Amino acid sequence: MPFAVYDYRKDIKNVLVTPHIRSRFLSMEPGAVASLHSHDLGHEIFLILQGQCEFNIEGDIQVLGPGQMCVALSDEMHQVRVIGDEQMIMYLSVTPHIHPTHTGRNEDGSPKDIRFAPQNAYDQEPAADSIEDNIDRHVQAAQDLARAARESAQIQKNMAEKLKQALENGDKEAAENARNTMWKGIYQVYKSIYAQGEPWNDLAPRAVPNE
């Protein structure tokens, strides 16, 4: 099956939204200013495709044009403003994408109250199952993550001793085997983290009725 191809001149939307990453094309009209905010977990990457945009990242202000990119790290306050008389179009991605995703900031930099945006804010449909089933999925994913973390912690402890011994003996093969086994445990933890992100991202926006 062919993979999707997106064009910034017509696909002005979120094109991929998973717990791993949210990526989209975004357009803003001349003079438009985005709200000041930060991301609790995510680093955000901006790539300008058309027009001119002024970025304020932690008080450092610079203007970017087509072909230029910048990054706002997690917890760094940032804001964008379109300058000039041309529509601005950018590609942006935030990784990971875990609700609430955005923390609004006051002018003095203090955080605003936590707000969970609805799924349609990210061009997604609400979860199809009942809220009760969603809660159960979330709890199960949390338990799976806890189990993966415990198993990985034991693997790291066991393999650490073998890795130390292999390095002391100059045994390259044993060192490689120990390292690769450690990675398998870490891999399962990260898979479980993102697996928990899925039911949580479904749950968080609808956990409080009429929010």
Any overview of this molecule?
- The protein has helices at residues 131-169, 172-203, and strands at 14-17, 22-28, 37-38, 43-50, 52-57, 60-64, 69-72, 78-83, 88-95, 103-104.
- By secondary structure, it is an alpha+beta fold.
- The protein has 2 domains: 14-122, Jelly Rolls; 131-206.
- A 5-stranded antiparallel β-sheet has the order 1-2-9-4-7, with no helix packed on it. Strands 6-5-8 form a 3-stranded antiparallel β-sheet, with no helix packed on it.
- Helix 1 runs antiparallel to helix 2 (172-203).
- The mean pLDDT is 96.
Looking at this protein, list some descriptive labels.
alpha+beta; Jelly Rolls; 2 domains; 3-stranded antiparallel sheet; globular
Give a topology summary.
Blueprint: E1 14-17, E2 22-28, E3 37-38, E4 43-50, E5 52-57, E6 60-64, E7 69-72, E8 78-83, E9 88-95, E10 103-104, H1 131-169, H2 172-203
Antiparallel strand pairs: 1-2, 2-9, 3-10, 4-7, 4-9, 5-6, 5-8
Main beta-sheet annotation: 5 strands, antiparallel
Per CATH, the architecture of the largest domain is Sandwich
Count of beta strands = 10
How do the strands of the widest beta sheet line up side by side? 1-2-9-4-7
Stretches where pLDDT is under 50 for at least 5 consecutive residues are none
What share of residues are in beta strands?
15-25%
- CATH topology name of the largest domain: Jelly Rolls
SSE succession: EEEEEEEEEEHH
CATH homologous superfamily annotation of the largest domain: Jelly Rolls
Mean pLDDT rating: 96
CATH top level label of the largest domain = Mainly Beta
Going by helix content, strand content and strand pairing, the class is alpha+beta
Gyration radius from CA atoms, angstroms = 22 Å
What is the number of helical segments per DSSP (H or I, 4+ residues)? 2
Gap between N and C termini, in Å?
A: 40 Å
Percent in helix: 25-40%
